[in-house]
Amino acid sequence: MLIIPGYGSYFFLVEILTTALLPFPEKGPIENQCSSCKKCLDACPTGALEKGFSLNASKCLSYLSIEYHGRLDSRTGRIMGNCFFGCDVCQEVCPYNEKALSKEPLLPSTDEILEMDEKGFKEEFGETAFSHAGLEKLKGNIHAVRSGIAA
What we know:
Layout: H1 39-43, E1 49-51, E2 54-55, H2 61-67, H3 74-80, H4 89-93, H5 110-115, H6 118-125, H7 129-133, H8 135-150
Antiparallel strand pairs: 1-2
Helix pairs in contact: 3-8
């Protein structure tokens, strides 16, 4: 997780390739913003944040629920709680993100997603992060969460 002072960690990194000459301000390294805070390490549901500045991506729920190509089991579903896509617990507990959190649901219900076909999914999610994972992956994640709750 990268923290930008004054903005927190909710942002996307991008790069622009150009041949244009652009002014570039000389900045020194940014000091460690975390100090002795370990809220993200303590809150990580799978222990994927193994120690400061070290992530075991193979244990990370964001990796497992988005990039991992296998089906998730009910044990993983239990750990996921009610979140079927991504995780962000580390960002939710970060003191630098206190102002950025929204509590309003922005997605269709899981039942609506389970009823979607590919056409409806593409219309709803277009080129979003959800489309990257794909409808079948999301449906599988929802089933894993539900089977984890039932277990």
